[in-house]
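Thread amino acids onto this structure.
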């Protein structure tokens, strides 16, 4: 466990690009999982969310780590702009539901839902964070913009969180 945490820390600090296999134009895999918004748990179904409009689906490695907290703050500060553009933001990590309930309040500031990325979701979106030559059930940092029809229109995969909000917001605005 200690080696895994050390490798994760090194990968997060390095800020190296992640590599998402799903490309723009691909059909986004549908899924159902548990999530939380404002500390309240709910069942999240991607197909149901897409009926409301485009979705920014962003994967992050671990709740309450410095980069993931900063990214959540950045998305929460920009949520009004995403809503104005007609999109919703959903954060995804392999954290358990209790952790995400707290994270949705403390770091997402009740602005958007976060949900549990199960092993099948991590595999379907090809967002496993490789550590020491092995794939893990921890996600890398990848943001997808999915149009209302379920097609991926933009992918930004980079362990540095700093450009995820700007790039996804630009892609959402380009949909109009």
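Threaded sequence (176 positions):
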């Amino acid at each position: 466990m200690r080696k895994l945490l050390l490798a994760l820390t090194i990968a997060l600090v390095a800020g190296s690009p992640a590599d998402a296999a799903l490309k723009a134009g691909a059909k986004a895999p549908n899924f159902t999982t548990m999530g939380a918004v404002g500390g309240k748990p709910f069942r999240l179904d991607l197909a149901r969310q897409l009926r409301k409009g485009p979705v920014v689906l962003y994967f992050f490695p671990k709740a309450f780590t410095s980069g993931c907290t900063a990214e959540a703050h950045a998305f929460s500060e920009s949520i009004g702009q995403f809503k104005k553009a007609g999109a919703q933001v959903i954060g995804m990590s392999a954290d358990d539901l209790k952790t995400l309930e707290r994270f949705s309040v403390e770091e997402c500031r009740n602005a958007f839902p976060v949900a549990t990325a199960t092993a099948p979701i991590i595999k379907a979106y090809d967002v496993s964070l490789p550590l020491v030559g092995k794939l893990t059930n921890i996600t890398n940092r990848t943001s997808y913009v999915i149009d209302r029809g379920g097609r991926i229109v933009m992918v930004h995969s980079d362990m540095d969180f700093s450009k995820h909000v700007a790039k996804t917001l630009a892609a959402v605005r380009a949909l109009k």
